[in-house]
Design a protein that fits this description.
heterodimer, A: 704 residues, alpha/beta, TIM Barrel, Outer Surface Protein A, domain 3, seven-stranded mixed beta sheet, six-stranded parallel beta sheet, B: 54 residues, 2 helices
Chain lengths: 704, 54
């Protein structure tokens, strides 16, 4: 029997620096490679046990080796690993961002093992099969589209006496016949997805370590957006597994791997409302706890359905909104009603469902007004607590209508979509390959824009994404104050051009650097507030808030951990790391209500308030903002780690014989109970030992 | 959103609180949560967290 090795596509992100990449990826969400594991399951059912190479896992191993100075380049590292395996057939999964790297693996393997059959599959190779095989003679086959039926047939043909005759009968493959490349007709989409086995998750040795697992719940999107490549890959044939099958597989994952967080893989889960309702009701009846996420079109879901989904554990929805311009919605054939889409996002937010709202800019027909609408839509999303807006530059993906229309006009200007950066960082060899074969690697190219310069699109994109990264309320406040974020950007750009250049960002992109955050705050205070602001005090206060938040969220020092703590008279209360107390000039509560409800910032009352910012959760970094009453503020000031509870009570009582509003209760009691309240609200911690007056919170203050 | 008693609270000898006292002091020392700021959480795909990039 032939031995098969399946290699996943590299999808992790390489930021150039091994430590940065490792640290970053440790914090990110990882998923096992579903496509390869699904195919492996089908092969296993037929008695073929494939070997499996997880390139993402290898990439992390490589980075750790590289940190020890043991390896030179990742390609060599991968090849060394593959050389330890024995196989006759190498199946490589492909995606656009790491396609150059996959091609290089194939080339190296073929160089030393000319008899090994090299088969590409997955989205990228399926869409660029002919140009790929023309460009790279070491590729023997491409399995196009859904491979679960096609790939086993191909393996059978290899074993057949009349192999070449058999090959001609297999739909969905592209192969070499002598010097010619033959493209057989497309295979039919697999209609009964319930019949497919569960992916061979067990092949992944780290399977139980994932925080969540992907589960394919269906395939195909019936819509026809001009920029989307998956509609072609799945033949626009919408399919959904039966609710019973989905729940059965969710339970299996939970029972087998102990994981009850499931990422539903489907471009458009909610197209068949009846089936989704049936799924939710079945899940409710099964009384097992799951949390799950999915993708949906904003016009293929309604508030009632969102409520039901939330009730049965839906924690995340990916909404592709694409553009904030109603005109472009029609041009790109997405055709969403943006007002309705906003209502769905708002509804999901109210139900505590975390949504990713994805936008694209730099469409060839995009005007400055279209861009304005998109940018303002992006910033408007910051009104919600559970919405993560995203914006990327358009990539002309292979197989899309937009690529077909502009394929002869593409330029390699290196103003990339983020999509091109995901996966392995392109080196010089990659660039040469990309340059030589635009039809194979179109996603690295750009479509020239008619109305606005592409560099301008890119800078607006980087700017608005950076304001979201660095600040919580400031971009929204500027948008609300000015009514147009692009107007703010234009003034910012002019202001920045007039400033002396500061290169402290080093090699980092400027908008990713802390220098940007500092510069932008300076711009707001010295330029925006003088020239453009209508609610100056509010804007200044928001800058203060951001200044307080930045060091808390970004530089959170480790908490002191002490076992068996006791809150008693002998304890030493102290302000924990990640706590910041601020005096503000406006009513914080009113301010936030104004921002959330889009009412005029000029209506916010001038009112001195004391606010405590507290990072509540180390992992997710959630900041609780509390409005402190004067009594709590006084008590909190005394908790510096140098005094015991008893000392504080003594000092407090000697200062306060009488406390307003609490007649008849001794100041000792008020103080003791007040301290307990502060502790319960996580505004203080207690230690059994005296700690230095310079607490973590004070250190933070110094950093400001 | 308040912390449970991870730490044991020992009331000083001789100090006891009536329910009314608890309610009155509790009211005077209540600090309302007026905002919850969620730091960027990456659910669907990977981007470099800023604190790693700077």
């Amino acid at each position: 029997m032939m031995k098969v090795c399946l290699v996943s596509a590299l999808s992790e992100t390489d930021f150039g620096d091994p430590k940065l990449t490792l640290d970053t990826n440790q914090k990110a969400i990882h998923l096992p490679p579903l496509g390869v594991l699904s195919l492996a399951a089908v092969l296993c059912d037929r008695g073929i046990s494939p070997q499996f190479v997880d390139l993402n896992k290898l990439f992390f191993d490589f980075l750790e080796h590289e940190g020890n100075g043991k390896s030179s380049d990742f390609l060599t590292f991968v090849i060394q690993h593959i050389e330890t395996l024995s196989f006759d057939i190498l199946g490589l999964s492909t995606i656009c961002s790491s396609f150059p790297f996959t091609i290089q693996i194939a080339q190296e393997v073929k160089k030393f093992h000319p008899n090994v059959k090299i088969i590409l599959g997955g989205p990228q190779a399926s869409l660029v099969d002919i140009p790929t095989m023309k460009a790279f003679p070491f590729i023997d086959f491409v399995v196009r589209g859904e491979a679960e039926d096609t790939f086993p047939l191909l393996l059978e043909a290899f074993s057949s006496m009349n192999s070449s005759l058999e090959l001609e009968k297999i739909r969905g493959i592209t192969f070499r016949k002598g010097t010619e490349i033959t493209r057989n007709p497309n295979a039919s989409p697999i209609l009964d997805l319930d019949s497919l086995p569960l992916p061979s998750y067990y092949l992944d040795p780290n399977i139980t370590e994932y925080k969540s697992l992907p589960l394919e719940v269906g395939r195909g999107c019936p819509f026809n957006c001009v920029f989307c490549s998956t509609s072609d890959f799945f033949n626009r044939k919408f399919r959904l597994k039966s609710p019973q099958k989905i729940i059965e597989q969710m339970k299996f994952i939970k029972d087998t791997y102990g994981i009850n967080k499931i990422n539903f893989i489907h471009d458009n889960f909610t197209v068949n409302r009846k089936k989704v309702v049936e799924f939710c009701e079945s899940l409710l009846r099964c009384e097992e706890e799951f949390s799950w996420s999915c993708s949906a079109r904003a016009d293929q879901i309604d508030d009632e359905l969102i409520a039901l989904m939330a009730k049965v554990g839906c924690k995340g929805i990916f909404f592709g909104i694409e553009t904030g311009s109603a005109r472009l919605q029609r041009v790109i054939k997405k055709k969403l009603n943006l007002s309705d889409a906003l209502l769905r996002i708002q509804c999901a937010d109210q139900h505590g469902i975390y949504t990713a709202v994805s936008l694209i800019t730099a469409f060839p027909e995009e005007t400055k007004d279209d861009l304005r609408d998109t940018i303002n839509f992006f910033v408007d999303m910051l009104r919600f607590n559970n919405v993560e807006p995203r914006i990327n530059i358009l990539a002309p993906l292979a197989g899309t209508q937009i690529h077909s229309k502009y394929k002869n006009k593409l330029v390699l200007d290196r103003i990339y979509s983020e999509m091109s950066f995901q996966g392995f960082k392109q080196n010089q060899a990659d660039f040469e390959m990309i340059q030589a074969y635009p039809e194979v690697f179109p996603n690295f190219y750009s479509i020239p824009t008619t109305h606005v310069d592409r560099a301008y699109f890119k800078e607006v994109r980087d700017f608005v994404a950076a304001t979201y990264w660095w600040f919580r309320w400031l971009p929204l406040a500027l948008f609300q104050d000015n009514g147009d974020m692009l107007n703010v950007f234009d003034r910012w750009r002019m202001w920045r051009a007039s400033q002396p250049m500061d290169n402290s960002a080093g090699e980092l992109p400027y908008y990713r650097s802390r220098q940007f955050a500092k510069d932008f705050i300076e711009f707001v205070l010295t330029c925006y507030n003088k020239e453009m602001a209508t609610a100056k005090t509010v804007i200044s206060t928001i800058v203060d808030i951001e200044n307080f938040l930045l060091p808390i969220v970004r530089n959170l020092p480790a908490e002191l951990h002490e076992e068996h703590r006791i809150f008693s008279l002998a304890s030493f209360p102290y302000k924990p790391a990640g706590l910041k107390v601020a005096q503000l000039n406006v009513d914080y509560k009113e301010l936030i209500q104004c921002l959330r409800s889009k009412t005029s910032l000029k209506q916010v009352s001038a009112n001195n308030t004391t606010i405590a910012f507290r990072v509540f959760d180390q992992e997710q970094k959630e900041v609780n903002v509390r409005l402190l009453n004067p009594l709590s503020k006084e008590l909190l000031d005394m908790c510096d780690g140098s005094r015991t509870v008893k000392d504080i009570i003594y000092q407090f009582s000697s200062l306060k014989a009488h406390i307003d509003g609490i007649d008849g209760i001794s100041s000792e009691k008020v103080c003791f109970f007040g301290l307990i309240q502060l502790y319960k609200q996580e505004l203080i911690e207690v230690s059994s030992r005296q700690i230095k007056k310079t607490t973590h919170a004070d250190v933070l203050e110094e950093k400001l | 959103m308040e912390k449970s008693n991870v730490v044991r609270i020992e009331l000083p000898t001789g100090i006891d609180f009536t329910e009314e006292e608890k309610a009155r002091i509790g009211s005077a020392t209540r600090n309302e949560i007026v905002d919850i700021i969620k730091a960027k959480r990456l659910t669907f795909e990977i981007e470099p967290p800023v604190d790693q990039v700077i």
